[in-house]
Amino acid sequence: MANNYTDHPELRFELNHPLMKRIVELKERDFRDKDAYDYAPLDFDDAMDNFDRVLDITGELAGNTIADNAEGVDLEGPHHVGDRVNYASGTARNLDAMVKAGLNGMTMPRRYGGLNFPITPYTMCAELVAASDAGFGNIWSLQDCIETLYEFGDEDQHSRFIPRICEGETMSMDLTEPDAGSDLQSVMLKATFDEAENCWRLNGVKRFITNGDAELHLVLARSEEGTTDGRGLSMFIYDKRDGGVNVRRIENKLGIHGSPTCELVYKNAKAELVGERKLGLIKYVMALMNGARLGIAAQSVGISQAAYNEGLAYARDREQFGKAIIEFPAVQDMLATMKAKLDAGRALLYQCARYVDIYKALDDIARERKLTPEERKEQKLYAKLADSLTPLAKGMNSEYCNQNTYDAIQIHGGSGFMMDYPIQRYYRDARITSIYEGTTQLQVVAAIRYVTNGAYLAQMREFEGAEVSADYAAISDKAVEMANKFEEAVARVKEAADQNYHDLCARHLVEMAADIIMLHLLLHNATANAELFGKSVKVYARHAEADVAKHYSFITSLTPADVADYAQA
Amino acid sequence: MSLKIVVLAKQVPDTRNVGKDAMTPEGTVNRAALPAIFNPEDLNALEQALRLKDEHPGSTVTILTMGPPRATDVIREGLYRGADGGVLLTDRAFAGADTLATSYALSMAIRKIGLPDIVIGGRQAIDGDTAQVGPQVAQKLDINQVTYVTSVDNVKDGIATLTRTIDGGIERVTAPLPLLITVNGNAAPCRPRNAKLVMKYKRASAPMERPADGSLPYAEEYERKPYLTVAQWSVADVDGDLNQCGLAGSPTKVKAVQNIVFKAKESKRLTGADADVEGLIKELLESHTIG
Asked: What is the DSSP string of A167-197?
């Protein structure tokens, strides 16, 4: 039986990272739940064993039930019946299995029925699910919207809504509108306070809403009449039990067919305010999106793994010129590069997830008691690290999964272009990852400040001090040279002090930073486990070195005056 | 109405994934070379039991298995999916049992548990494929039996309604409780392991599985949590008659084991050439295999 977790030891390696010790300590707080809940861990090893076992359950479900249903779901898609969504039959079976396996509300505290898992193992589960059906991954992963309600909602909302998510109800985040996509400040869905009923009422239209017929919706709406920017927006929670939101249509998409993308009509829908008015976009959606971006990064890594698996299996099986095509260097180049990008991207994703875990756990402790000055320092440090790595993890992994599915089809040759092999589904599913939850271009916008303020460079310089196995000393030296080039390129762009030049160079600078940081993470992994990562670190080092040189060359040959060449009428 | 349900489950070698060394030279199963798994149709039976428990709150599901200490795995797998407890029947004197001795041992254990409303198990185990144990247990307990079941549709006022597979179709039958049911492989697959239950029961074990030297990790947990100790019964515990147990109670004797090699009487080799393909089509049309 296939098991998406145990079949790929790289993931278990990422789980057993030294930072997990601190994460578990912060999440379990002296293991105080152990007497109240029969499933709470007794100590660190016990907690790690729990994560491993739950990943095993998820990997088995994904590798069998979800994988078996994936083709049918892709062909059937969801149904629009009346004003509602009926999932494809395979999707419904997947959801039922995940709920029975108790994999909902994973990160929520036990008092609400959750597993109190850190974000890191939860994100790993998201990767495992996405590797079998990326569209279903959306429906299941939207459970992490509850994080935002947990962080910003009140006690009463917690006790009414969180247990329902832990029992398996699904969520959606209703942000996008026909005229508000990347630019969410333009959201116009209207929220008015109904004095008679003492509740808020929502009116308007939302578009491209994933899982739009969910039981619970987080909705961004304009609560401040007469405003036109982000400061007039608030966050609401809408409960499907109250009615008032209908599904007008389900979009017909290139990929992720299992995930219903809906146009929603709000007609006087009753809703509750989450947190404070006017903080909807500037605070809550930012938190929501950071979580969602980590989710898309995980989805991308899952698709990358699936693409690599398909490419590898086909290359081993397919014979041409009297031998399996995996023996040809041209195919080996593609496969090894896919694997290197997969390992590098995954290392970045979980490094980021661990940083998120530490600061979020400290945030949570801060809701119980005052943090010590050391803890506050730690919280700030990890929040900054997490914020800097999130756009890199999302941006790079989504681009890598597009590249990997492209190469996997290439390995299949003509057969890959036919609808007969699963790789065509992964290829179509991959395409959305670099678009939704902020396009790659918007990830660059989020990341560039850490280029210019020196945060990425500081991380590189700190990595340079880490111990690396003697086998990789040469790679380690190259990483230093690459960081020097990066530093030089950044200085050049800053010196020019030209906004358009800066914006044109931004993607190049961000990719340089990502390449170098991922190379350091792989050096760490290969030093700890040469068998798993020894080849990938070498292949990735060559790829990264060439890529950094390319971007360096682009930036140093470009002057602010050249920007005009790029302007199209 | 709450139900008392006993699920009969067996740990079997995974004969679906057979490698080269799956058989000993003597023609018997090489158990060491095959992973031990939960007999597939017993998992279908467990699902039916758990569905009855979902529909009838307060019901209990107990897994009963006979085997060496490591067979406790099937009890843990049951606990992970929602069973309430389990009993491991283990004793050297149970070893070498054929279906008669097995059903005797199981029926004695069921009597000790206390006669349930429903005893349910898979139609047959993939190592022996006899389909005899279920019916024999029903005979020994002197209760009704319904075999080849694909679903237990409902239980109401002491009467169960069931769907069973018959030649060329299905049959719906009713039967009064207490009742023994054997379940087919085309019944609903078993639900997955549940995360919370896995974390709760992962250390559940039978006393014989634990190290004798006191090196058991988290030993104090077993005192605090009685559900971590799986009941383990010997022949004496179930008041068994040694002459009816194990090898002594097994009239089945293996007379001889033969290796059978399937060989076609006549074989033809065809190429992909048009003439060969046309010839084959003609031949198949003439023999009415196709067309």
From this structure: TT--EEEE--BTTBSS-GGG---EEEEETTT
